[in-house]
Task: structure prediction
Amino acid sequence: MAQQTPPTPPTTPPPEGGGGHLVWLAAVLSLVCAGVGQIYNGQTVKGIVLIAVYVVGWTLTSILSAICIGVLFIPFMMAIDVAAIVDAVLIAQKVAAGKQVGDWEFF
Result:
C-alpha cells in the first residue's frame, strides 16, 4: 500500500507592488533617527546624508547650548526631523504601491 502525502495548501503570492512594504515602519524608523526610514525605503545614500546632518546638527546644538546659542538650532533640527518623517511615509506609500522612486526623490 502506497503512502499518500497530504496535499500542500496553495501559496498566496505577495501583494502587487511593494510586496509587504510597511509604511508605519518607515515612519517609526524616521522618528527614531532621521534617515533610517529613507534607508528602509531603499534610498540609502539619501538616508546616510540625513543621518549625518541629524548627528552633526544635534551635536552642534548641544555644544552651542553651553553659550546659549544652541537654542537657535532647535527649531531647525525639529523641522528636519518632521520633514524626514513625512518624507519617509510618503515615499513608503509609493514603494508599497509598487511605484518606482528615485534615489533622491523627496515627498
